[in-house]
Each structure stands twice: as C-alpha cells, then as structure tokens.
Amino acid sequence: MRLPNKIISYRESSLSKYTLVLSILEKGPKGVLELYNELKGKLQTVDEYVEVLDGLYALYAIEFEPESGVLRYVERD
After folding, report:
1. In a 3-state reduction of DSSP, which class is residue 33?
2. Nearest to 73 by CA among 26, 15, 37, 18
3. For helices 46-58 and 15-25, angle between their N-to-C axes, nearest 10 degrees
4. Contact status, residue 27 vs residue 72, Cβ threshold 8 Å
5. Alpha-carbon gap, residue 67 to 64, rounded angstroms
6. How far apart are the first and last CA of the chain?
7. For residue range 33-67, what is the model confidence (pLDDT) as tens digits?
8. Which residues contact 52 (CB under 8 A, 6 or more apart)?
C-alpha cells in the first residue's frame, strides 16, 4: 500500500483513491472487472486497484459477495 510520506504525495497514495471507489459503489454494487474498467484511467496499475480494494475491505467500507462476484458499499449507521 502506498501511503503518503515525504516522497509520495497524498494524491499519489492509495488513500486518495478510496473516495473514487466508494463514490462509484455508493450508487450500487459492481462487478470487480466492471469497477476496474470505470477506474482504469484514474489508477496507474492493477496492483494499485487491488491495494485500494484491500484497504477498503480491511476498513469494512466494502464487502465482496462471492456468490454473485460483486463489490458492495457498506453503509454505516
């Protein structure tokens, strides 16, 4: 995971991409590939995409439904 520091700016970090993913998933569930295709121009590599999904999953901000293969935004109270 690319965290901001003296060398890596916030804009280049994985954290800055969290809002991109969450704003798409707030509108409704998306398949993993479908979401990647929407973000393709905004992410540098597939590795960065996976890092962002890992971080959001670890924070319980998104969930993966293996039966349907979709990612879903987790709403909080």
Report:
1. helix
2. 26
3. 80
4. no
5. 9
6. 28
7. 999 999 999 998 999 999 999 999 999 999 999 99
8. 14, 17, 18, 21, 43
